[in-house]
Write a structure and sequence with these properties.
Order of helices and strands: HEHE
Distance between the termini: 25 Å
């Protein structure tokens, strides 16, 4: 989930780490503060940035990248599992 204060470099490093660990699918979505007791949203990420992360992820070698503000961890999982 993006929007917790991570930098773009941190997101790209996380992608590399996930690939090195054998992940072939990545989901990237917008963190939304579920309650006032939870960590606040630091930044709202624009859809264009999510598209950029998708392109980068595919170029890095992920088989599938689901990346948009409403994506959650199991988003469209059924279409990627065979």
């Amino acid at each position: 989930m993006l929007g917790l204060g991570e930098t773009e470099d941190e997101v790209l490093i996380l992608m590399d780490d996930a690939l090195a660990a054998g992940c072939s699918i990545i989901t990237i979505g917008q963190y939304m503060q579920p309650s006032r007791q939870n960590i606040p949203v630091t930044e709202y990420i624009y859809p264009e940035k999510f598209e950029e992360y998708k392109i980068i992820g595919l170029k890095k070698g992920f088989k599938f990248v689901e990346s948009s503000p409403l994506v959650r961890s199991s988003y469209c999982a059924e279409k990627h599992i065979q």
